[in-house]
Amino acid sequence: MRLRFFAALREQMGASAERTVRAGTTVGALWRSLVAERPELGAVPVRFVVNETYVGASHRLADGDEVAFFPPVSGGT
Amino acid sequence: MFRITRSPIVLDRLLRAVRDPRAGAVVTFLGTTRNENSGRRVVRLEYEAFTRMAEREMRSLAAEARRRWPLRKIAMAHRIGIVPVGHASVAIVVSAGHRAEAFTACHWLIDRLKEIVPIWKREHFRGGQVWIGPQQSAPARRAGRRPRR
Questions:
Q1: pTM strictly above 0.95
Q2: Domain span holding position A38
């Protein structure tokens, strides 16, 4: 499935990546596997988005999902 | 009109989009790029969006605002890429029969946009840069969403 990264995460991971993920894997587990490969990611609080919808860490992935990882949305002004 | 754009925001276009003969008030919010943040001098700002989702989230915020208040029309635009200091990075325009709901809805819309619309800001300082994260806690309170992790 296609993974997408934005802002600070994009700079660390590139804009997108392909990963094969077993159906039923949670998005939180997928994130933990990415952090296991690159421990420095663990410092970034992320939000999970599947098919352009915010989801919780326990959301289960299906074939063909597009998964996006968001660092926090810009603040202030 | 709900748009992520690389071009300068043209307020007149948004004003035209909310024109309505039943409206007695049009309230405009412009967010402009400031030359300092937390005491540091900002020389350049840069925005990045998940464009398709950002436009959809803006439309859905507008639909929610219309459910909450008796509004006529709403237009929103956010600029991405490099935005020179002093220029508009975001614009929200709301028309309504009366000013009270137009002001309230416009204020609510910019606050919610900051919370949930996927747009990030990078500030360049002399000698450095930083991605700006949330200055208030983020969005876990949308309906049906569980707190993250």
A1: no
A2: 2-70
